[in-house]
Design a protein that fits this description.
alpha/beta; Rossmann fold; DNA polymerase, domain 1
């Protein structure tokens, strides 16, 4: 193994409180009569933004859903950059240990600017060599994993994530999948499992 590619939400941190506040602010600004809950966000974890919009805004047509999602994102990115999220225990300590042995990357199903907001608030960007998301590429998570592999000439990477979609993406890319069972999803098939982030220091 020469590298580790991480999912972000549910794997490195829990951003739900911050995201929830920003999205509800955006909905209020748009005079949209709905208040989102943490459960609403949890059931959309791992989806791309247009898929999230379809789940949350069922009374709107597809065009209106995308516009509403765009408004949420416009508020969310600067809000996350200013307020951050809840890092999982021992995150930086774990990244520091792993970065001494492996190159680290992030591939998330987020919008453009979201990973940068995570970096900006928590000052963790120096641990990661590269990142990718569909907001920049328009590609699926599996395709973005492959893009990271090609762009960085990785020979033996693994992917760490918390949802079935993460597992599917790793399988699409043809690389091993490590299931973060403390995250938001339930996954039955995986190559290795961790119950907390710091477990990575033991199994890799």
């Amino acid at each position: 193994m020469d590298s580790i590619i991480f999912d972000l939400d549910g794997t490195l941190w829990d951003p739900r409180e911050t995201v929830l506040t920003s999205w509800n602010q955006a909905l209020k600004e748009q005079q949209y009569d709905k208040v989102l809950t943490k459960d609403d966000l949890t059931k959309t974890m791992g989806l791309q933004m247009h898929e999230i919009a379809a789940v949350l805004f069922t009374d709107l047509n597809e065009s209106e859903q995308r516009k509403m999602m765009d408004q949420c994102i416009a508020v969310e990115n600067p809000y996350v950059a200013k307020h951050g999220g809840q890092l999982y225990p021992e995150l930086e300590e774990t990244l520091k240990v792993l970065a001494d042995k492996y190159r680290l990357f992030i591939v998330s199903n987020c919008q453009d600017g979201y990973i940068e907001a995570f970096y900006h608030y928590h000052k963790l960007d120096h641990y990661f060599s590269d990142f990718e998301n569909p907001g920049r590429t328009g590609l699926s998570k599996g395709e973005n994993i492959n893009l990271i592999i090609r762009r960085n000439q990785l020979e033996d990477p693994v992917y760490v994530g918390d949802t079935q979609g993460d597992c599917n993406a790793a399988r699409h890319a043809g690389i091993p999948f490590i299931y973060a069972s403390y995250g938001f999803g339930d996954v039955e098939e995986y190559d290795r499992v961790i119950e907390k982030l710091a477990d990575l220091k033991k199994i890799v």
